[in-house]
Design a protein that fits this description.
8 helices, 16% strand, globular, alpha/beta, Spore Coat Polysaccharide Biosynthesis Protein SpsA, Chain A, 7-stranded mixed β-sheet
Length: 240
């Protein structure tokens, strides 16, 4: 499994994040897990810290984007550069713990994605209410039955992840986009913590207005989405 970690100006969190991730990697009991940082054009010292981590541990790698393009772009860049059969996702702000990935593994291969549910949110009132409203609006409009679509703790089968049709705001619909391919999504409660350091990258405006327009875009895309399964095949033979 490769774990994608989008980073944008998180220099205050990266040291502690590495400690938490090391603990998971060393105690997960699973071999072959790697971590891929995707630096989304940070303007602080994040890149230097990421490079220092990668120099001292070959389980870590990075992609450095030339400019800040947003979370959906960072996730897509990570998926495009993964070669594993499972792809994990976690934010670097430590509001979720990589230790909870351990409980996700038991649901593969029966499910095609496991999505976390932040059962006891440790955010301020405005953030909790705006998130609750956005989740409720999304479920009403697209009927995906996903309790916490933006929970920053997920594992996906790579073949499903690579077929996701990305657009700005896609990160808000990853479970629904797996379902759109006929995939099965399992939801699992995970721990949630107050932000360790740094500042949130979203405000009330983009937590409400962004999801509204993104939901309309998803509905438009879903009506036109092309999906098929091959029943059988015969490969053509090339002439000598």
């Amino acid at each position: 499994m490769t774990i994608i970690v989008p980073v944008y100006n998180e220099e205050e969190s990266l040291g502690h994040f590495r400690e938490e991730m090391d603990a998971f990697l060393n105690n997960s009991g699973r071999a072959g897990i790697s971590v891929l940082f995707v630096n989304d054009g940070s303007t602080d010292n994040s890149q230097a810290l990421i490079e220092a981590i990668c120099r001292t541990d070959r389980r870590y790698g990075f992609i450095h984007l030339t400019q800040n393009r947003g979370l959906s772009t960072a996730v897509k860049a990570g998926i495009d550069n993964c070669r594993s059969t499972l792809i994990g996702y976690i934010d670097s702000d430590l509001q979720t713990s990589p230790a909870d990935f351990t409980t996700f593994f038991e649901f593969f291969p029966d499910y095609d994605m496991v999505n976390g549910i932040r059962a006891r949110r440790q955010d301020n009132f405005v953030k909790r209410m705006s998130s609750k409203f956005a989740n409720s609006f999304r479920r009403l409009m697209i009927n995906d039955h996903i309790a916490d679509t933006c929970c920053p703790l997920k594992i996906m089968k790579a073949d499903y992840a690579r077929r996701i049709p990305f657009f700005k705001g896609t990160h808000r619909f990853l479970p629904a986009l797996i379902q759109l391919q006929g995939g099965r999504v399992k939801q699992v409660a995970v721990a949630h913590f107050p932000r360790y350091a740094g500042t949130a990258k979203y405000n009330l405006w983009n937590r409400l207005l962004g999801p509204f327009f993104d939901t309309l875009a998803f509905i438009w895309m879903r009506k036109r989405y092309i999906n098929y399964k091959v029943a059988s095949r015969s490969e053509p033979k090339t002439a000598d």
